[in-house]
Protein: ABC transporter ATP-binding protein
Organism: Hydrogenophaga electricum
Amino acid sequence: MNDSHRPFIEIDHVTFGYDSRRTILNDISLRFARGKVTAVLGGSGCGKTTLLRLIGGVHAPGSGRVVFDGEMVNIRDKAQLQRLRRRLGMLFQFGALFTDLNVFDNVAFPLREMTDLPEPLIRDIVLMKLQAVGLRGASGLRISEVSGGMARRIALARAIALDPELIMYDEPFAGLDLVSMGVTARLIRTLTDVTGATTLLISHDIPQCMAISDWVVLLATGGRVVAQGTPAELMASADPEVRQFVRGEPDGPVKFHYPAASVEQDFGVGAAS
Ligand SMILES: Nc1ncnc2c1ncn2[C@@H]1O[C@H](COP(=O)(O)OP(=O)(O)OP(=O)(O)O)[C@@H](O)[C@H]1O
């Protein structure tokens, strides 16, 4: 297959559980297109972060394959993992910046750790990445001096420091005010378009995901793919499970009430005296 048509990441009949008692992902097959933004949505605990960990080679699937740009990920092959991770940028939940380093040194960190580039070149790259997120002027600030929205953008600059071909964002909008959320979302889209990186995004924020994604995957608890398609297709879906999720309806196929004994039984309502 021609490279440009081959998905950058392929999840091929993957089943995974952290232990044998519970399956987290159940025979999942997904394809993440090169140079596109794909959002993976789904309720808490349905396995979104787990999926990212499988792609990053943190865990191996119980069965099935994870294919990274045509290469099957094998977590026992340390040389391969190192090579693949060098091509991967990750923005962790809440950014996770080093508070003892300033803004500049946070972005420089992966460059100093993973490359032998001379310091003047590192300086230029760091300032370029900070420029891309609008924070070149903040390079000398301490992390304690920056706002939550700025911190997220610094984490973004750090995630793209090594020019990754794949960027994975774990809850990039969590804890942000609406304006910062919009800024972060637009940046994710722009960075994807400018760099041509393949972008995977997991988030609970449906409007932001719908606004910036090319493709959306909806996962359900029990590790099942409920639906996938363009944002417009998902928003227009007549499937009750998709509708409940994308519209945030409190009751639907996913029940508001946890299974319980009947009201009559618990409260004695209607019981004959
Ligand atoms: N290291 C682990 N060991 C055992 N169980 C785990 C581990 N990490 C996650 N789990 C469990 O696996 C399930 C899926 O977790 P995961 O973090 O992938 O879900 P998620 O969809 O990302 O959830 P959220 O949206 O709340 O972040 C959860 O029930 C979680 O408790």
Observations:
- The beta strands are 9-16, 25-32, 37-42, 63-68, 71-72, 88-91, 166-170, 198-202, 215-220, 224-229.
- The first helix runs from residue 48 to 55.
- The mean pLDDT is 89.
